Amino acid sequence: MSIEKTIWLTELFDIYKSLLTQKQAQMLALYYEEDYSLSEIAEHYGISRQAVRDSLKRGESALSDYEEQLKIHQKRQLRQELLNQLLNEDNRSIIEAILDLDNDRIS
């Protein structure tokens, strides 16, 4: 898995972990936050590595689905980009774009 995808999934996990099942959230936390291997997680839960992998994939898929529907991560990134532009130039349209994000008018 690429570092970019790992970072993206870690950020999505931070946003959406409360929407996952308890077991998915625990396994994803061990894998992404605690840097456990599949084998270590399997041993911890007394299940196979394949079962861990399947659970992680389902959790990752759920995170991706939540982002596709809610777009919280996308909005945060866009907000940060707009704020960075605002630091560099005084522009009313940027401020209006930020306000539009808060009103769910993302296109």
Automatic annotation (TrEMBL):
Pfam families listed in its UniProt record: UPF0122
Gene3D superfamilies from the UniProt entry: Winged helix-like DNA-binding domain superfamily/Winged helix DNA-binding domain
InterPro entries: RNA_pol_sigma_r3/r4-like, UPF0122, UPF0122_fam_protein, WH-like_DNA-bd_sf
Family of the protein in this entry: Belongs to the UPF0122 family.
HAMAP family: UPF0122
Function according to Swiss-Prot or TrEMBL: Might take part in the signal recognition particle (SRP) pathway. This is inferred from the conservation of its genetic proximity to ftsY/ffh. May be a regulatory protein.
Protein known as: UPF0122 protein HMPREF9257_1239
